Amino acid sequence: MIEKIARKFDSKVDQWEIFRERYIIESHRFLNKKKIKIKNGLEEGYGIRVIMGKHIGFATANSERELENAFRKAIKIAKLSDELNFIPELQASESITFEKIDETPVERGIKDLSNSLKAIHEKNTKLNITFSKTTIEKNIINSMGCNCLGIKTYFDFWVAATISYNSKHAEAYANFYSTKYQNVFYEKILEAISKARDTANAKEYSSFKLDEVVLHPEVFCALLTHAFLPSFYADAVDSGRSKLANKKNQRIINKTITIMENVRRRSYNYSKFDDEGNRIKRKYMVKNGMLKNYFYNSFYASKHRVKPTGNGFRTSYDKTPHIDYSRLEYRFDKAKRFSKMISEIKKGILVKEVLGAWLSNSTTGDFSSKLYLGYLIENGEITKPINARMVAGNIFDVLSGDFTTSKEYFLSGSPMNSGDWGKEEQILPYIRTKKIAIV
Questions:
Q1: Is residue 342 within 8 Å of 380, Cβ to Cβ?
Q2: Of 201, 235, 260, which residue is a domain's last?
Q3: Which tens digit of pLDDT belongs to each residue from 70-82?
Q4: Angle subtended by helix axes 185-201 and 106-118, to nearest 10
Q5: What's the pTM value of the predicted model, to 2 decimals?
Q6: Residue 404: beta bridge partners?
Q7: Are residues 195 and 226 in the same domain?
Q8: Same structural domain for residues 183 and 84?
Q9: 3-state DSSP call for residue 174?
Q10: Contact between 278 and 300 (Cβ < 8 Å)
Q11: Which of 91, 223, 324, 381 shows the smallest number of beta carbons within 10 Å?
């Protein structure tokens, strides 16, 4: 039915695309040990994109009944739009389907969470908790023959712990997200409480000469996300905002580093196609320190006359595709056990959490973030919690210099906006370096 409506406009446009998104969410909120709010919702919408020569139009519809009007609006917008200096193309032409569903009812999660809360006996602590199960269905149809359908479920748990004592107040967070249900509520609640307690007890850092700084994988992930990875985006390359422009097949970082985009079946972000219907394929971004690829969506692939790389994603049906990655795996050749890595440091700092990583300069790679929670490393042991004004450096310098990483790797990620498949994922170790300053 949807394609039949679209075919009415074949003679009026060069290409068309319909992106349909439907999601069902069951969300429960707890304040301390009391369930206070339940949110159940269903949302469905359509994004219509048309191409007419060197012009693009986009419009939305909230139901199938509104599709024809949305097509007419998109055509009108295309006619009024500025002419591009190239002819954009939709290149997806495959029919791809996948399904990844966990039938575990949300009620089981609520029961497990309630039992976990009964086992928590922390004083002077407030807990704010959200647990949800979401089912997303995405369908992409275009005039090139693409007809992709994907359905998946995922679970999200988020807890904020606030501690108040001795005139000190501190807040910390913990979360997990997975396409498969996991009863890890108790561990995550204790993690948030422990971090809040350490944050409250943290002493302000007094400057002294450090041997090295160690970044927790989540901090490493945040700095890579905001200071390093945007340079791989084709739109940044195109506009001169990338440090990696015209450096394909050149060494950009230490030769011991390899970075690959690889969305595995067990991954939270698993999908066979992006939000334009282009197949997501395993690919090297960096191999032995050399730049191998950029991330492209269809728009910039057309402009640069290359194939899309499966990196066109939307934050919602009512937005056009932007460039992003799904899951990145890193390999560092110089690695030691985390305990061994720490034991070799006479005086250093383990950076556990920072604030403001998103303010990093993605063009130069410079970052300067507040050290929210860290730990002193003294004579090979992690000792007391600290905080400081800034963690500063340049991510390209860190990755190009001497460093050591842990043999232990962790799933790290940052939440995408509502409506996307879920989270950007990076598989990362701890990293030890002398290229970061704590002030």
A1: yes
A2: 201
A3: 999 999 999 999 9
A4: 50
A5: 0.93
A6: 432
A7: no
A8: yes
A9: strand
A10: no
A11: 381
